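can u pls check wat happens w/ iron/sulfur cluster
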Amino acid sequence: MTVIRQQDFIDSVADALQFISYYHPQDFVQAMARAYETEQSPAAKDAIAQILTNSRLCAEGKRPICQDTGIVVAFVRVGMNVRWDDATMDIVEMVNAGVRKGYAHPDNVLRASVVSDPAGKRTNTKDNSPAVVHVELVQGDKVEVRIAAKGGGSENKSKFAMLNPGDDIVAWVLEQVPKMGAGWCPPGMLGIGIGGTAEKAVLLAKESLMEDIDMPELKARGAQNRLEELRIELFDKINALGIGAQGLGGLTTVMDVKILDYPTHAASKPVAIIPNCAATRHAHFELDGSGVATFTPPSPEDYPKVEWTASASARKVNLDQLTREEITTWQPGDTLLLSGKLLTGRDAAHKRIRDLLARGEKLPEGVDFNGRFIYYVGPVDPVRDEVVGPAGPTTATRMDGFTEMMLAEIGLMGMVGKAERGEVAIEAIKKHRSVYLMAVGGAAYLVAKAIRSARVVAFADLGMEAIYEFEVENMPVTVGVNAEGKSVHKLGPQEWRERIRIAAA
Ligand code: SF4
């Protein structure tokens, strides 16, 4: 009988979470490097270069790949011949103790993103607990843990349907993927669960994302069963949609499609899709009673020699002297390097501004959005000599409902975020001759290097959702929606879908 110490389990979970916060899985880095080599869309190639450069910088600096350091999901398989030494906690409590320890590591404090009372006050739990834990009792004398830190942007794009037995799974998936937009920060992978019951299909989709990327190997050896055929068919057809990195249009939208299945009721065909983003983070370890799990760091040679630099055509923009006339000259897809002062704000700050305005009250002292740009971000706290931790963009569509208010009532000039905007925001942008700029999701540490100073100006109690003022220098962004309401997230995929179609004809 194997005897496992509670503290070894907790420390292993904490170490795994630190490890995956700054090291991408190597299969993911290699797949991203292949995507970089083959990409022909300049905008998508630039985004992939940012993601790869960010990945290497994070490994060197041991700082998070993304400002969203995720909600922890753990699959724990406990051997029936395992005995716990001095355990005072159950498995879920042990995972949560590991999460608290891992996220508070003083050299690399991770962002606490979990809120309790999700339908009510949505109060940040401050230590990123609790995790979502799935425990299985299995044969054997080991404890096996597969653990991930799942970003909200990609989790939010999950899809589920109860198809009829005769319905076509491929057709349903191809209908869903364009609707997922770019908020899941492609390129990444899709996990698909088929069968079982409703909750089983979703769980299978999540579990499938714990596997390594092996699509090139699968294609080389050929499919050997129905699920492998389905994986290849979906991989090719999804990439033919032309969505591309960050939804800018390009050749690689997914680097793999994983599928797990389970027998189901004769009347049912449940199918779930869960995407994994540019900040794919997962680790696997086993405890056999010999102590804490160890994790082998990648070596510098494991990263491709890709060094992102701003394109020669990028336009330098001084935010402190920018005029409303100048922003109307920008075209979708233009690349800009922003310097000057930016205010930040995301979901909670927008809601609070709306509540203040609804009560006829003023914004807090020192907050003036008139003629300014807002950056949708919730940064990681700084460590050592940093002015701010990783600070990449959050999904802009969540702020769509506030856009008219921000532009019409408090004089905002423009916005910076990630992914596409919805129709309501595009209409407001057009009406007010505003602009939406997008930064690359999953390149948060690289983006943070452009931030020269940061100070909280309002709503400090909101933590990472407070309003900050950033002083930035040459922060890379792309024009997402211009003053005429033209969106790069519509034009780019349209263009690349057509190019792929012609090339395949
Ligand atoms: S890469 Fe994108 S979806 Fe993933 S955690 Fe970061 S911001 Fe969220």
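The chain has three domains: 1-24+65-150, 152-287, 315-491.
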